[in-house]
Design goal:
117 residues; two-stranded antiparallel sheet; 8 helices; 2 strands
């Protein structure tokens, strides 16, 4: 999802804004658990993690991301590489996302896409 940066042709960041507004956002720290991640609706999990990775690389750089990504334990790796817990990074990420508003037409398109599936 990071490389595509889109889900159903709509930017991942817009999806995250939509899910935050709708109250269906799942915190990144919960999505680090693979079993939990795959037990949830992929229309929520993939855009959230794709947008989070995009943000993480933009803010902290690809070098740090690759260092973290090589590890098996993502929670420990985040603490080691970023010196922050997944919860702290999630708060930073959602604070960033909340700076932006979704265009009304895009929001309507999201609702339509979700109903069509």
């Amino acid at each position: 999802m990071y490389f595509d940066r889109k889900w159903w042709g709509i930017q991942n960041m817009d999806w995250v804004s939509f899910y935050l507004k709708a109250g269906s956002y799942i915190p990144v720290n919960q999505l680090l658990d693979k079993e939990y991640f795959f037990s949830q609706d992929c229309t929520i999990t993939y855009p959230i993690m794709g947008a989070f990775i995009d943000w993480l690389i933009a803010v902290y750089g690809i070098k740090h991301f690759l260092e973290m990504y090589r590890e098996q334990d993502m929670e420990a790796a985040m603490k080691q590489v970023y010196n922050k817990s997944p919860e702290e990074l999630n708060r930073e990420f959602t604070s960033f996302i909340s700076l932006f508003e979704i265009d009304e037409a895009i929001e309507q398109r999201m609702k339509t896409k979700l109903l069509e599936r």
